[in-house]
Amino acid sequence: MKLLLSATTAVLFLAPSASGFAPSSTSASVHSKPLTLAAAASSAEEDLELTRQIILDFMSSDAAASAAAPDEENGTKQYITPPLPENDLMIRAALGREDVERTPVWLFRQAGRHLPEYREYKEKTGRNFLDMLAHPEDVAECTLQPLRRYPVDAAILFSDILVIAEALNVEVTMPGGVGIQVPNPIKDPADLAKRIPDVSAMTPEYVADKLGHVIESVKLIKTKMAEEGMAQPLIGFSAAPWTLLFYMFGGSSKKNNDIGVQWLADNPEDSRRLLDVLTKIIIEYMSAQVEAGANMLQLFEAMGMMIDEKNFDEFALPCLKEIATELKSRFPDVPLMVFARGASFANEALSKLGYDVVTIDGSVDRATARTTVGGRTGLQGNYDPRELIEDEEGTKTVDTVRATAKQLLEDLGPQRLVANLGEGLGGKESPELVRAFVDAVHEESEALIKSS
Fold it and tell me: In whole angstroms, what separates CA 209 from the centre of its chain?
């Protein structure tokens, strides 16, 4: 009789209690796969087999529960930060925890239209820009092209700021010749409620479902970089909430410039609801990029020029604060950079939110840029990309680029600086002059640092 009861006894003693394993059958329900009491065994051999099966079921159940909740004790997910790349210059400069040997440099839109190899590849695929973003192999190729040509200190994910709008049921098209379009913007609060999911739906699973192709692209980029011996960090990025709201309501740089601010005035609570949704999905989207291999993050408030300071402070700034707070709590060693293009009035406030780097556009006076951020962050920018466009008069040369790059370094200082542009490359820039800019930043900053 003792042997015939051992299978049931195994259930009782394998069931976990709050303090570990204890002889309590009621606590077995904490597992996702409940344990079931065995029927009475008819022999010693059958009893042993039942006992073995119960133990295996228990171990399987326990492993599954542990995998699903790696830090179940305090209810928090454990986020994974990629290892440092061999060339960690830009990471060190952005975090500002130590001096660097030279100033790192990369360029907004360094992948794309200004490169002849990009134009050739695009023609070969027969796909437009937006179509290419759905193919990880295209994204990886375009991301790596500038790294093959220039000694830049980072790669940046080849993507678009409106992929999140698409993930939220707002169609984005590129008909050709007129840029990216949002043909069916959100019309009114009822349309907003119908089309945009609730903030509670903005989960890692939602990102995996709607933006999984981007995350797969990040993974493929890292694989291809390793195969080609590229040791730079990869920058992941997203548009910021205000910029996305502006486009989703039908705004653009060419028309409907005031539609976003008008929405804020007419529908403040609905606007906040959308901004909350956008804030949450951005956090999960950027987190997914890091966990897929991105070493740094860039947040683009690209339409900062389409909002006034009062509305920026009331609507945009709280979102930017929440994003910085959450991402830095998850990934304290992943540099987080922010760019409020056309809204330089916000740079001081941005420097107090937890970002590692504040980007300055071409309107910012370099003489006051450091004072504005007060040593709280590093700076990024703000070289004029027009210096990289050759003209008929021959006024833009390798020598003029070197002189203007040196001036940038002298004005802003070579430490806690990521040399970049005040505006993205537009497509007319000379690859020769872009290379001259990258080389000049490296060489002139190294000389400045050594001399000081």
Answer: 17
DSSP code string of 45-64: HHHHHHHHHHHHHHHHHHHH
d(CA 232, CA 147): 9
**pLDDT above 70 (res 10):** no
In sequence order, what are the beta bridge partners of 298?
237, 337
Residues 201-214, buried b or exposed e (16+ Cβ, 10 A)?
ebeeebbeebbeeb
Residue 217 DSSP SS3: helix
- CA 161, 162, 164 angle in degrees (round to 5)? 105
pTM comes to: 0.84
Q: Are strands 20-21 and 16-17 parallel, antiparallel or unpaired?
A: antiparallel
pLDDT, position 58: 37
Angle (CA) 362-281-309 rounded to 5° is 40
Helix (H, G, I), strand (E, B) or coil at 354: coil
pLDDT at 73: 55
Whether residue 260 contacts residue 303, with contact meaning beta carbons closer than 8 Å, is answered with yes
Given a contact cutoff of 8 angstroms between Cβ atoms, the answer to whether 103 and 316 are in contact is no
pLDDT tens digit sequence for 260-285:
999 999 999 999 999 999 999 999 99
Q: How far apart are CA 272 and CA 269, in angstroms?
A: 5
List Cβ neighbours of 98 (8 Å cut-off, separation of 6 or more): 92
Give the Cβ contact number of residue 395 at 10 Å: 9
Q: What is the pLDDT of residue 419?
A: 98
Question: Structure tokens of 232?
Answer: 């730079």
- Exposed/middle/buried for residue 126 (C-beta within 10 Å: 0-12, 13-18, 19+): exposed
Strand spans (E) along 147-267: 155-156, 234-239
Residue 105 DSSP class: B
Residue type, 347: N
Whether residue 386 contacts residue 437, with contact meaning beta carbons closer than 8 Å, is answered with no
Exposure of 144 in the CB half-sphere (CA atoms within 13 A):
21
Element of type H or E holding 259: helix 259-266
E-state strands within 108-215: 155-156
Q: DSSP state, 258?
A: T
Closest-CA residue to 34 (of 60, 67, 70, 72): 60
